[in-house]
Predict the 3D structure of the following.
Amino acid sequence: MHKMFKITSLLIGFSLALAACAPVEPEIVTVVETKEVTVTQEVQVPVEFQMESARLAAIKSNGKIRCGVNSGVPGFGFLDASGEFTGFDTDFCRALAVAIFNDVSAVEFRPLTAAERFTALQTNEIDVLIRNTTWTFSRDVELGTDFGPTTFYDGQGMMVRTDSGFTSLSDMGGATVCVLSGTTTELNLADAFSARGLEYEPLVFDNSDETAAAYDEGRCDGLTSDKSQLAGLRTTMTNPDEHVILPETMSKEPLGPVWAHGDQQWGDIVSWVVNGIIIAEEKGITSANVAEIAAGTPEDPEVARLLGLEGSFGELLGLAPDFMVNVISAVGNYGEIYDRHLGPEGTDIPREGSFNALWKDGGLLYPPPWR
Amino acid sequence: MRPNATDPTLLQPGRWSFWRDSRFLQALAQAIFVVLVLIAGRWLVGNLFTSLEERGLDLNFQFLQRTAGFGIGEGLPFERTDSFWRAFVVGFVNSIRVIVFGLALATVLGILAGISLLSGNWLLRNLVSAYVEVMRNTPLLVQLFFIYFGIILKLPSLQERLIVGQFSLSNRGFYFPRAVPQDGATLWLVLAGAALVGGIILYRILLKKRILTGSETWPGLKAGLLIFGIPLISWFLIPGNPFTLEYPDLVGLRMEGGARLTPEFAGILIGLVLYTGAFIADIVRAGILAVPKGQLEAAKASGLTQAQVLRLVILPQAMRVIIPPLTNQYLNLAKNSSLAVGVGFPDLYNISSTIFNQSGQAVQVISLMMVTYLLMSLLISAVMNVLNERLKIPER
């Protein structure tokens, strides 16, 4: 009898296990099938192309957008004394929330380390990553992520003590350099010293607060990071006047929003919200005058299209027709966002004459036309 | 009608339906549990593979051959152009260094502190007790930050370093002279090694003879003469010195030559040793208290000195109680060494996180890292189990 019971229970266990596995197997088969279908669909793309973004639908049902941000770089993403995320990057998260929900607070900020950020995208922890992330070949192609329009043109620099006597990188042979782990910075640093035939000793932390603290304590001769971040970090030093940023720029660092590869429609939304914010500055639309302009009949047809008075651009993205009106009145245009965080009141990164000026003013910000 | 409990037919097979049999129900519950675990596991793994496939990523280890492109501050020589795999090895060796030195120092500190906890000296006992309580009841990461940022980095700069002879201390590390092997070094090391082995054998033979015959054979003295005498004589006989000293010197921004203890290595090592030492101290104290009081009284009555009582009677018996929880602390130390990233020491975890960030292959790098830590832990457990077996009371 005992054996009978054991055998019966084992049999039941097995059949349950099989039953559990059963629905799984055809699932694997469907994966193969969908692959085949996508191949045939490729031909049909112009005829039958999908407008709906699966992620947009998911975000709408969640009621908020999950945005990966930095919490330790003043000016870009910083958790301020009142516990609010503030910065240039976090304002773009808010802009997306306004575009979708017309609610500036419909954002869930996820502070991420440099090391965690791509994994967070790959595993669907966040909808979009706006965390001073540099657009590179291998990140775009290999990591399964896509990059949006550049919001800030940065370059890697080196901060040193004024009393060290360094005036350029070439003076720094044998120096110890504090650097953040998992960044392109770490690679550019190696390249820059290697190119000058100099030796150096890297000291790597996985948190920008610790990196800056070790430099501030004098453990390192130099602190390297994107120049925009160095400007912010300099203000957090015990005595900011004792530090200077060397003139050399070691790299090109185009920073922008990133999303997981595979939902182009979602990518379009992110890209065009950013483009719209830049166009708004180009056209002189600010948070102060946007309501007035939208209420009237703007003469410039592009302004009319941007504000949803002409055409159906909002609907094409699955958003409200006047979503840009909401965005601009809530967070302002590019210039306003820049001044708020990176201007003289913020971390004071001069904009005039830099790459981050509008194309009309000799910069690199050249948004594609809204038509 | 309720069946009568004394009814003999109750025990007959087939009297009750099988689903009311507790043995069946237990087996069923277990089977259901296994199935649920399998479903959950299948779901998690399936999720992983679906996500990876959607993004066109796969799970091979080819990327380890690619050029790393970053630099590593300390450890085995490492160039920008070396591979990710080489970087992983550098991190592994750095971790092993911390763990080996950490285990040895934490054991010594733990035993001394444990004995002090039972000392008759009021001041010593209470000082050590305060140390143990503080260390045991605050988080290790906080202690590491305190030691590294609060103490080590507050040392003077390299230009204003504290100098004692050829030794110097600054927030760039502790620099000391380094022994550089010369031509005769190998011969001298062989002779010294032989003298050490010979000395230990001689000590054992003489000791045994003394115990058997009762006549003084001076085992310690003779073995000591052999162990120190031969290396000393051969040092002068071998032409040229086997080793010369290389002194550190400030050249530009950094010290050149000599040997160096970096602030990061010192930070993680001191942190781990102080933290684990406190736990070991309590284990040692408990182990000593576990030895029956009669043993102590008998040993004292035999006229042994305080030190002999401890060394020959108490500790050997206490070790049997100490080893199993000690193994736990050793494993904790090995695993806690991954906190080195907090103080910037390039250990296995620190470098692996750089690798998976630069390569984007999180799943592979984390699996590789987990397997490595698992193997290190299993090795420590295995060694401690062998030790435990050898210390067991021999049973006849």
Summary: Residues 178-246 of chain B form one domain. Residues 331 and 377 of chain B are 6 Å apart (CA to CA). The two ends of chain B are 61 Å apart (CA to CA).
